[in-house]
Amino acid sequence: MDRRTFVVQLATATAAPFLRVQPSATPLRADGARVNAALASFDAIGRMPGGINRVAYSDADLAGRAFALDLVRASGLAPRVDAAGNIVVRLDGAEPTLPPIVIGSHIDSVTDGGNFDGPVGSFGAIEVARSLKAQRVTLRHPLEAVIWQNEEGGTIGSKLAIGALEGAGLDAVARSGKTIREGVVRVGGSVERLGDAVRGKGSVHCYLELHIEQGGTLERTSRQIGTVTGIVGLRWLDVAIDGFANHAGTTPMDQRQDALLAAAKFTVAVNDTIRSAPGRQVATVGRMVAAPNTRNVIPGRVELTVDLRDLDPAVLDRFEAHIRQAAADIAKATGTTFAVTNSVNSTPAISDDRLMEAIDRSTASLGFTGSRLPSGAGHDAQEMAQVAPMAMIFVPSVGGISHSPREFTRAQDVANGVDVLLNAVVAADRL
Ligand code: GLV
Ligand code: MN
Ligand code: MN
């Protein structure tokens, strides 16, 4: 699929049923019950009253990774942790000189998130490796199931794996309070040897990722499986607003430099700017911290974040420029200063046609209904798309809810997705 077709499809946001796929020979089956059992046990790790909290490099993330390593070993497979801190499980292929098929996802979570965003594809990938081994299916290519570290902090593990993050980027502070540099060491990698984990262009046969949809299109259209046509790009901006902290009772209204008032105006301006033009671009001010955050003091400083997404890099450029201009205008009007820095960029990615067909065929051969749809969420797959052909498999999210404790995907849908991944891997091996 070319970018223009994808943009048109994204703009109309339809789920297009595919019709032209013929079911092929008897498909393989994985043990979906094993994946669902792993998900059920995993739910206890990082579970807090507000939801799942396994933010990257936290103690709960480390506990999650220990769980995953145990799961791999219990599956009769041998895990290793690469220099970037990604967990890698390898099955040899019949032709050892061929580049590997890579499959995987992540197990870190957002703050107060759910148990399905990432773990479904991670444990699904381990199950695919286990099933192939148990069923004595030897692929031509080696297979690598990977659990990428710190997806939610900006696809960090996969960025490291394509050599897209180095130098000052490693000093960025993750949600856990640890820098990426500290995090890499904490999860068993090595900052000095990061180059060892880099996968260059052509070093990977293809990349496939199973994931929950995180939106409501499959559920709304009664489809069991989604073949992802492409993934939006994102820009994360960190904004620091400095005003002047002063007495809330004695400072007249016309003599204030209120950083929180400026932040409020800026939040509205981001929303207005994004909505002022047609298209599927989205932007969110999702985090705001005021200081001193006290009832009777005018806020002197605010730090906030902007998450901006679209498929088209030119649209991202345009709206980032509008947002920066809004910051400059509001700074002037409120007597504050705005420092806007770009902390994370992820490039939009288009799925590979032949891999999408392989997924469509696997879906049909298993008797599932499928459709093609774009991803509005970010994924490690979009980083891997820069070095290899990529495609993704979506399974339905109940109510279209994700990044929430109410995130849920039915056990049958998880099992269906793992079966599709297994057969898509077998099909991709023949490409
Ligand atoms: C990752 O889940 C993202 O889309 O933010
Ligand atoms: Mn997520
Ligand atoms: Mn995810």
String of helices and strands: HEHEEHEEEHEHHEHEEHEEHEEHEHEH
Helix % is 25-40%
Number of helices: 12
Please tally the β strands and state the result: 16
In the predicted model, the low-confidence regions spanning at least 5 consecutive residues are 11-15, 18-23
What is the CA-atom radius of gyration, in angstroms?
22 Å
Q: Give the bound compounds.
A: glyoxylic acid, manganese (II) ion
Strand content: 15-25%
Mean pLDDT: 95
Tell the overall outline: elongated
Structural class: alpha+beta
Note the gap between the termini: 17 Å
Largest sheet: 10 strands, mixed
3D architecture notes:
It is a single chain. This protein has 431 residues and is α+β, with helices and mostly antiparallel strands. It is 34% helix and 22% strand. A hairpin with a 5-residue loop joins strand 4 (79-81) and strand 5. Helix 2 runs antiparallel to helix 4 and helix 4 (119-134) crosses helix 12 (411-429). Mean pLDDT is 95; it is low at 11-15 and 18-23.
